[in-house]
Write a structure and sequence with these properties.
With 158 residues, the protein is α+β, with helices and mostly antiparallel strands. It contains four helices and nine strands; from the N terminus they run H-E-E-E-H-H-E-E-E-E-E-H-E. Strands 4, 5, 6, 8 and 9 form a five-stranded antiparallel beta sheet that branches. Strands 3-2-1-7 form a four-stranded mixed beta sheet. A hairpin with an 8-residue loop joins strand 4 and strand 5. The longest helix has 20 residues. The termini are far apart.
Length: 158
Amino acid sequence: MKPIILLILKIIKYNMEEKLMLIIKADKNTLTVIAKCGDKIAEHEIQLKLVLGYYWQNELPVIDKLLELFVTVIKRAVSQIFHHKKLLINYTLESNDNFENSSYFEINISKVKADDVELELLGDVITFEGIDGRNTISKVTSFRRKDKKTIEKEIISS
């Protein structure tokens, strides 16, 4: 009876090792991206206060640059645990006004694939909410200007 149990445990362990996971955690100050495959783990943090302060001080497009950094961090984390040539990331960006005037952004990651192997996602929705400096008329009429776009990034490694 014992050899059968050992065989089942080996099969379960093998399946767990082959499972690719992408875990995204966020709090007020950091955005953490963790890629996991069996015993291999790669963890990277984005210090939001520092990054956002740098973007604002240098008058850079905050959302574009933050998304660019986020995709780069995902790429780096996945590359450290699973060697691949092509990484595909699908996500939706939604705001409560047009992107320039919005005080609320939501990133909803729908799919991450590395060489046709889909990663299991944990923590696929990230929300950024700031001080709403819009006037009352802008707030009331913002439903007309809400932006939502779906983005598909394909990164090919050399």
